[in-house]
Amino acid sequence: MNGIDWTFRVVQIVSFLILAGWFVLAILSLIRLRRCQLDKTARILYMRCLCWPIVIVLLLSACAPLPPARLEGDLPTPSAVPHNPGVADLLRNPPAPGETVEVDAYFSGAGVPVFRSGPPPPPDQVFCPTFFSWSSALTDQPFTAALLLLNGVQGNTLLDDAPWLVATTPEATRPGVRVVPQLPYHARLRGHLGDPAFAHCPHHDRIFVVEDVVMVYAEQPPDPSAYQMELPDDYADWLRHHDAELGYSLPYPHDWQVERLSEPGVVSAIALRGPQWPGYPVTVRIHAGETRYDQYDPVSAPPLLQGEGFGVFEQGWTFGEGSMDSQHLAGYRVDREADPSERAVSVLFSANGHTYELALRYPLGFDAPQPLLTAYSAIVEGFRLDVVPGPSPTPPVKQTLGAGPFLSQDEALARAREREGQEIELLNAQLVSEAEARRRADACGTFFRHPEGVWVLTVRGTFEGAIRTMRLFLDATAGEQLCGEEIHPEATPYPTLPPGTTATPVPTVPPETPTPSPPPTRLTAAPPSNCPHTPLGGFYDVWRNEQVWPRLGCAVEAAIPISGTEAYLCCNVHSIWIREKRLFVALESNFRWAFVADESGLPAEAVFVTPTWQPPTATPGPPPPTPVPTPTQVPPPTPPTATPAPSPSPPQPSATPAGVQTPLPTVVLMTRLSWPLSEPCFRASGRHGWLANLPPWAEKCDGLSASNETLFSGGMEEFEGGWLLWNGNVCFVLFVDGTWTMF
């Protein structure tokens, strides 16, 4: 029975039986004594000396309290250090598959804010618990599964040669069931290894099926507040290093040492070394030249931004707004994997002709030092420049046509027809500068590279099984297609050059050329100024749009850097995978979207997020118009009736004659945002292949993708009514009613 030590119960029952026997013997003795000739005093002494000590001992034994029932929340204190075998013992001497054993272990999932939601596995498939290894780990010593670093949460990992098991329950052995074990922080567990239901899983020999909790030890798990970054207690006593020549200063703990380094290729370098972690100093390097990321040319990212992933970073949010004096410097965060047992992080600030790099290498696993990460975060937040830099420069978009030579109109059309493999009707064509091409485009305004000139061709033909009107953007020098988007058939055309005309540099926007693009949005009402968080930089530019802020409302947290991969599936779905949250954002071409938890198992690592993050799971069909539940969620404000629904499409005609089919609105072909229209589909693999085979997209995508998986780095910010997501090229606005738009 759950919660009772039957060995102790058996001892009590035997004691009661012995006590009853002594009472019977005592009664018989009294009867016999009455018949004896002993005097009264002798009989009394005889009974007291022989019977009562034995009776007292038996009473104490029989009436001792039972051990407490093992109910959830009870924490009986063990009488000594656990004697049962630990995790390392089981791995050294593994029991036979299915043999029941007991093990004393710490459970990493107790008291940790972990997001492990998502759709259940297929009904005929057993879910592998090793996909959540580090949030369900059993270890011989406490294991910190979530590390706080800068303004985010970083998942910790254990190496294969470390002693660890993955806990699950007997219910998880059934197909179509995904169980998240709820176990005590430190306990003696009864269960077995080698369950055949998990034979197909990675590390199947480390999956421990917990059958019962034998004993709960008194140790308490870390308080959930421990997963909120707080300034070190002695921060007010920290010293400050100032380099007047290079114009910067930063704080560091009073018992740390500042060491000058001599490194090739840098202007200057120092190491801040703490006595507790002498092998893991905070390194500050000053590089010549400023580091900027060109969102239109991601393949040419500067060397300092090349790593496993990078994203935007801004001071002032790590320890809470207003918790410390900060210049709110903006820069980049770069994450790298030093080796399987270590990670590295760098923060880059650029100003005054220099790049200031603050780097840290730190160990993972049991040796992961949260105090070191906290100290590093405080050093980065306290970094200051003697001269505050101005606004970041914009990408180098070419404002005028280059010198050429350029393809003629006929040559450009021939390239487009060759790529499409069909005869397409040319409606109009214009050779323009890069800046003008981006201005005329909708979603295609984020095409890659900086061409000397762009041919903008408006054509009609069969695209994806339907007659569509398309706007194609071609590199006027190389003839490569930069992007393509569907437009409204009745959109105001640009003037077409006569056939056979060879393009020559012309004014970017001729005075007589009508401009079909809508004028810039006028802000008829100002966004609220009393929000707890105000978006910054590009997020602010998008949020303050009158089509956006009435629906998004206030930001509920500061923007965080994200990184991951993206791909375009052959069912008009733009799939974005966020590494930090182990989460997909599926953007459909009908401007519906959904969060989908990544259960692909690539890699088999849990990712931890803040407790307020509770995105919905994907369901067949359009997502229901229900706000994403968060503790701070409020119904989003209703946009003014005069404000059109957010969409990159132009307004519909004011009237449609009766009996005439309403023209299709402008719809961006989501699989065609940043790569040629005629790319063939192929069998998808990896994470995005998993999504392409997941309902409701499996039937439409058939497991096919039209692009390879590519890396991105960007940012994300949560609002009362949705999210802003920047993938380094486009800012997506994700509303809680399941619709989206982009800027």
What would you note in describing this structure?
This protein is of the alpha+beta class. Helices cover 15% and strands 26% of the residues. The strands form 7 sheets. An 8-stranded antiparallel beta sheet has the order 25-24-23-22-28-29-30-31, with helices on one face. Helix 1 runs antiparallel to helix 3. The radius of gyration is 34 Å and the shape is globular.
Topology (elements, then pairings):
Elements: H1 6-35, H2 40-50, H3 52-62, H4 87-92, E1 101-107, E2 137-139, E3 146-149, E4 152-155, E5 165-168, E6 186-192, E7 207-216, E8 239-243, E9 248-252, E10 257-260, E11 268-273, E12 282-288, E13 309-314, E14 330-339, E15 342-351, E16 354-363, H5 370-382, E17 384-385, H6 409-420, E18 425-432, H7 434-440, E19 454-463, E20 466-475, E21 481-486, H8 537-543, H9 549-552, E22 560-569, E23 573-578, E24 583-588, E25 593-597, E26 682-683, H10 686-692, H11 698-701, E27 704-705, E28 710-719, E29 722-726, E30 731-735, E31 740-742
Parallel strand pairs: 5-7
Antiparallel strand pairs: 1-2, 1-6, 2-5, 3-4, 6-7, 8-9, 9-17, 10-11, 11-12, 12-16, 13-14, 14-15, 15-16, 18-19, 19-20, 20-21, 22-23, 22-28, 23-24, 24-25, 26-27, 28-29, 29-30, 30-31
Helix pairs in contact: 1-3
